[in-house]
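subagent[fold] <- orchestrator: predict structure for attached chain, return tokens only, no commentary.
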Amino acid sequence: MSRLTGVLCVLLALFLPATGWAACTGAAQSFPIFNQPNVPVFDPTLPDGTVLWTSGNLFSTLNTTVSCSPFGTVLETGVPGATYNATYKTFSTSVPGVGIQIIDSAGNILPYSNTMWSNSSGIFSIGISFTLKIIKTGPITAGGAITGNIFQYSAQSGTYPIFYVYLTGPIVVNPTIPTCTVTTPSITVPLGNVSQNSFTGVGSTSPAQSFNIGLNCSGGAANVTASVYTTLTDQNSPGNVSDKLSLTSSSTAKGIGIQVLNGTTVIKYGTDSKVIGNQNQWVAGQTGNGSFNIPLTARYVQTATTVTAGSANGIATFTMGYQ
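subagent[fold] -> orchestrator:
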């Protein structure tokens, strides 16, 4: 199952070029634009310039006590730091290959300049009506989410903010990516007979033994990959978030635990969840359609000053999420 997160951080800034230097007083206000629907699942091999989603008309009435004298021309631009794509008239987002286009109520595509004035009482009021478009601007290899500020109105050549307008929830960009089924649902890893004397102190380990988690992945578009997010959970102690798997209640050995390694990194355990960002979740790699193997190793580790000989078994489950 795919899980997508990320941020849209595209600001529309309305800047005031100097027609005389503006002196401003008052505090900027923030106004929400409520959650927008997710972008429908799409083929990421569509041609660049394809409109993936259109918001429809969005509206917010803004009122704040900010007075600037003189006020003058306001220039509509994008977020500081966002790259403008003149070919598709979009601003870059946190999702590579995806841009956002902002259109005002008169049909002007930003950047655009306009003239606005505060009234004599110092109250600046405006009804904002605009449309957002999500547009493919280049190769898309994974999804993500766009959220946060989308507009900023500023005076005094853009240095004095008046309004901030923001999304209260993400616009999720969801390309067709592979999802996987497990081909090795139950894996036994024999760690062998280990001499009690081979443990020399807390943290000492036995020789590691190799094993693989096998997956078969399908459903993605050609040349599109997904990140495989993996969580190992201690079945005997589901709340365990350490890097040591506890022994089963039937085990008779004492003073040891089990470690699982991804390469040279000892994996920490987490709760059983496929949600991206789960505690101690790790990325096993990138996969397209086809077979995918996750090579791991397991070993015993001394956890107490004294080791008592006996049977030492542990059980871990693994859960995957895809993005």
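orchestrator: received. Logging for downstream: The domain at 13-173 is CATH 2.60.40.3310 (Immunoglobulin-like). The radius of gyration is 28 Å.
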